[in-house]
Amino acid sequence: MSLQLEIVTPEKKVFSDTVENVYLPGTDGELGILEAHASLVSGLKPGELRYQKGGQTVTLALGSGFAEVTGHKVVVLTDSALGSDEIDEAKAEAAIQRAEEALKSVDHSVDAEEVAHLQAVIAKSLAQLKLKRRPH
Amino acid sequence: MANLRDIRRRIKSVKNTAQITRAMQLVAAAKMKKAQDQAIAGRDYAKQLKEVLVNLKENVGEDANPLLVKREGTRELVLVISTDKGLCGALNTNVFKKVRANVSPTADFVTVGRKLRTTLGKTGRNLIADFDVKDPVPFAEARPIAKFLTKQFLEGRYDKISVVFANFVNTLTQEPTIHQLLPIDPGGLGDEQAYEGVGKGDHGKADKAAALSKDYLFEPSPADVLGDLLPLYVNFQIYQMLVESRASEHSARMVAMKAATDNAKKFIKELTLEYNKLRQAAITSELLEITTAMKAME
After folding, report:
1. Which class is B41-254 in CATH?
2. pLDDT tens per residue, range B68-99
3. Which residue in A30, A46, B36, B126 is a FRET match for A77, CA 20 to 30 A apart?
């Protein structure tokens, strides 16, 4: 029993291997994917992706993106996917601060797209911090 | 015949040039490696994103999103990606040739890169915007460009938006390519002509067949997923094209500078040979003069 998981970001292919199950942060709530799941395309919001391989659970902090599930394959397209040890706390905090400041200067009624983008940046950084600060 | 001092000066100046081109070659080689890696890394994402999109478009109509709708008009906006610096062989010339061959002179232009901005300006094209992109290309820099172009398209100022850029094939080959960015052409997605990151034309077709045989669930809904996915797709395509252009630029520069260095070295060799010949001739004639003088004194 296996499920092929592929995590791809614009910069590189982060992960490509078989796993036992995957939990994704879908836009409508968490999605648990096991083998032979129905074909599915879902948006992803910034949050945590968990997968199990050989009894071990690995957690990654994801940015927003998409997941495509087809039978035995899960493809995750995201703007970032970082493991706990790859997360730079200071950088994430700085990103939140920058985004919050930018958010103040943007006119919310006019530039909805920019607002959504900045909020996504904040959510992404928060997800990273949350994962980083969790006791292991 | 040139005299000794002239040749010596000449050799010195060619040596200096060779030194500079060699340094540029080394710098370009280092940057080239990085840019190529970046371009190739992005192709995986491009491929996967496209697969999802091909699957999606089979499940929703063309009218589902304004970015997909083809328009009748002919007003065209063209994004031309060139380099900031010269000395990269015929790269920019080739891109410009592509523009001249494929774009009507009445189209408006947006540029990235100083070189073709100047050229387009000189040939009387209408430039409406210019963007600066850092090296190496950060993903975030594609966003303002994508946003600007999408806005122009959605506000109905233009009916078609294309991009002309140098697609990176390998270190020796860069192919000027024109690609229709908006409207996102659902037929063109599986098209062999369409830009796919690399020349893997059959890929789209296979996906299409596979997509048709699958029934997809969409979460939250096809329209929502599409609404999020299409801007990302545009965004990412621009990023990928910027990265491909950068990889092409550094490759072309590396090759051009290597050729220049080699030529300079060859030239130095020839000049040195001539210099030595002249020197020998001068010594011979000097000796001759001395012996003649001695003979006369006897």
Report:
1. alpha beta
2. 888 888 888 999 999 998 888 899 999 999 99
3. B36
